[in-house]
Amino acid sequence: MPSAATACAATTLDSIKRSLVGLRMPRALEVLDATVRRIEQGEIDGISALDEILTEELTLRESRRVKTALLVARLTTVKTLSGFDFTFQPSLDRERILALAELTFIDRSEVVHLLGPPGTGKSHLATALAVEAVKAGRSVVFSTLADLIASLAKAERDGTLRERIRYLCRAALLVVDEIGYLPVVPGGGNLFFQLVNARYERGAMILTSNRGFAEWGEVFGDPVVATALLDRLLHHAVVIQIEGASYRLRQHADLVPEHVRSKALITPPPAPKRRGRPPGRAMLDHAAG
């Protein structure tokens, strides 16, 4: 027959379990019995046990928070900086990227431009920095330019453009991927300008593009709109040019028969040189109406 002390301890343990259920602490409840046994065996004291139980619960909650935030940010593919092969892109300053991971550019509402040929790691770096922001508790929205403009166009048709832009401005960090990969639909440049103008000096952005700034008039189908965009996007900006081969193609180069393997398939053409001066205020005023 159990002693009175044992019965009292069991009753107390049941009470703790009920409290953990009421507090919605599933991980703490899960590890409680094992932790109590470790106390009884003299492996840890009560304070250490309490610390371990709370750490387990906090770790679970943080994992759930990050998972939910990644879904809200539309970061369905998670990339990390530790998974990026800096040795493959010697033109890239590793320390500069790690400095961006400290996220102070978000506090300064700066725009980070990642430019370079396809396959050089722009999207990987943009995603990894977005993941770092999510882990740090910053709100993030990630989208390709094509999807972003499509959502703005739909909102305009539905009469909810102002609300959509307001929603996109609430995020501490907006990542716009693949600028220049697909043609921008007519009117899309103006919609993107409205969003950029609303976030100007109010929220940070990361943009990736395979096209030089001098080509943005062609990308957006309107040199004046492109100039107005660049006027804002280059004012408080960090520009990182990646010059190198495509990681994806280099990784699978051995699958291409030797007699058809071409350097052109592996090594991209040199990045276009910038032409002209930075956009002036006169053209911006003209674009803004």
TrEMBL record:
What is the name of the protein in this document?
Answer: IS21 family transposase ISMex13
InterPro entries, per the entry: AAA+_ATPase, DNAC/IstB-like, IstB, IstB_ATP-bd, P-loop_NTPase
Which UniProt keywords are listed?
Answer: ATP-binding, Nucleotide-binding
Give GO terms: molecular function aspect only: ATP binding
From the UniProt record, give one GO term of the biological process aspect. DNA replication
Instruction: Using the UniProt annotation, give all residue ranges assigned to the region (Disordered).
Output: 265-289
Family membership noted in the UniProt record: Belongs to the IS21/IS1162 putative ATP-binding protein family.
Whether Ribonucleoprotein counts among this entry's keywords is: no
Q: Which residues form the AAA+ ATPase domain?
A: 108-243
Q: Entry's SMART domains?
A: AAA
Its source organism is Methylobacterium frigidaeris
Check the record and name the Pfam families matching this protein. IstB_IS21
